[in-house]
Amino acid sequence: MKVWKKSRAVAPRPARWFSALLCAAALSCPAATAQAQTAFYEASARELAGPPGSLIRSEPMMVAPAGAQAYRVLYRSAGMHGEPIAVSGIIVVPPGPAPAGGRPIVAWAHPTTGVVPHCAPSLAIFAFQQMAGLRRLIEQGAVVAATDYPGLGTVGPHPYLVGDSEARAVIDSVRAARNLPGVGEGNRFAVWGHSQGGQASLYTGLIAKTYAPELRLVGVAAAAPAPLPPLGHDVDAPGTFDVILPVKIGYDTISDRLKQAIAAMPAVQGVSVRDVDVYPSSGKLVLGLRIAKASETDPADGKWIYLTGRIQVDAGGHAVRLSNLAVISDDDALAPLIAPITAELGSKASVDYGIAYENLLNAANSKLTRSLKDGFRMVGHLSSAQLEKIYLPADGIVIALRASGNLRILYGM
After folding, report:
1. How many C-beta atoms surround the C-beta of residue 109 within 10 A?
2. pTM for this model (two decimals)
């Protein structure tokens, strides 16, 4: 296996936050500070001038499934009182030129992800995984337009479970998609969604003909649509929901833990470990050990030997350790000398992330129960979390934990 080795002449890796759909972090922000997330999501009054569905801006995204091209978009729509607003989202275009007559478009309406701007699906590291059926739709030549809904990504508040608002955002995402390269001039679209998105799909079916007469709605699919809140009652919908809690462990933290573990091991005769470095390569973790022989007395002496291994997560014990460590070295004499170190690192060098996990969970729960607008309030609670996926970006391990919980919207109580 080819392993990328860092140059020793480069400066330490830059700090770069790994963006994620973290409703725990998002919900920890007071509603009064529900601002647009970055400059991309902001629109001036001058930029808002234009017909609903026209693009304000778009930017290509780095990756997309099945060879497609994805775009993060900001487009114009209509607010609660008909005022011009900006709505964000993602549009995924299949590879290759559009056929004669244009491509069919499927509008994806997402389930509940939160109620503040941080919870926009277009901000998520796993945005494409949230779009149910995305790969099959791309392979069948369909464009997928996935709105964030108003107030998610863009400036809040988010009109949660307001069907007309959701439907306008869905329809205008279809209009916006038609302005992107590779889509063509087709006017056929279908809509499908789940939970909150199921409700959005049904409302899209109700208003599409009058709101967008130039488009032809050919199908509506709604899975577990959330009902409208009845006034003066405790609302059970949307019921249970899942949130991804990304726990981050910096490579410097892992490096320090490895140094501590190595220092506690019995000395290996003839060699010593002078330095440790940790970084990702080809989906694995690379451990660099600067090994010096006993005869090398200068602190700068030593040769780098590399180990590769996989991350093993004990989700129940909230700990990370290394597994399947293998030595990669062109020094046949030195490699066997560190075999005792390699054998013990996997079992003794673990990093606990329990405190970080508890902090995220507590931050989310502290804000899941609070007042909303116009007499509504939200009551929710996240409980246990299960391992979803492990990511290895440039600045640390990200452990994505799927936390399950329940959410109720109350009115007049």
Report:
1. 31
2. 0.52
Query: Which of 196, 129, 130 lies closest to 163 in space, CA to CA?
Result: 196
- Confidence (pLDDT) at 365: 83
What is the three-state SS of the chain?
CCCCCCCCCCCCCCCCCCCCCCHHHHHCCCHHHCCCCCHHHCCCHHHHCCCCCCEEEEEECCCCHHHCEEEEEEEEEECCCCCEEEEEEEEEECCCCCCCCCCCEEEEECCCCCCCHHHCHHHCCCCHHHCCCHHHHHHCCCEEEEECCCCCCCCCCCCCCCHHHHHHHHHHHHHHHCCCCCCCCCCEEEEEEECHHHHHHHHHHHHHHHHCCCCEEEEEEEECCCCCCCCCCEEEEEEEEEEEEEEEEEHHHHHHHHHHHHHHCCCCCCEEEEEEEEEEECCEEEEEEEEEECCCCCCCCCEEEEEEEEEEEECCCCEEEEEEEEEECCCCCCHHHHHHHHHHHHHHCCEECHHHHHHHHHHHHHHHCEECCCCEEEEEEEEEEEEEEEECCCCEEEEEEEEEEEEEEEECC
In whole angstroms, what is the distance from residue 125 CA to residue 388 CA?
Answer: 12
Res 303: pLDDT: 85
Average pLDDT of the segment spanning 254-281 = 84
Task: Give the type of residue at 80.
Answer: M
- pLDDT value, residue 409: 67
Most confident of 21-25, 121-125, 176-180, 295-299: 176-180
Cβ-contact 345, 258 below 8 angstroms = yes
CA distance 149 to 337: 59
Domain 23-228 has CATH 3.40.50.1820: yes
Report the pLDDT averaged over residues 161-171. 93
Instruction: State the pLDDT at residue 122.
Output: 94
Place of tokens 């508890």: 358
Closest CA to 184 of 106, 67, 72, 101: 101
Closest by Cα among 344, 353, 333, 358 to 399 = 353
Cα–Cα dist 313/383, whole Å: 19
What residue ranges of the chain are covered by domains with CATH 3.40.50.1820? 23-228
Contacts of 49 (CB under 8 A, 6+ apart): 84
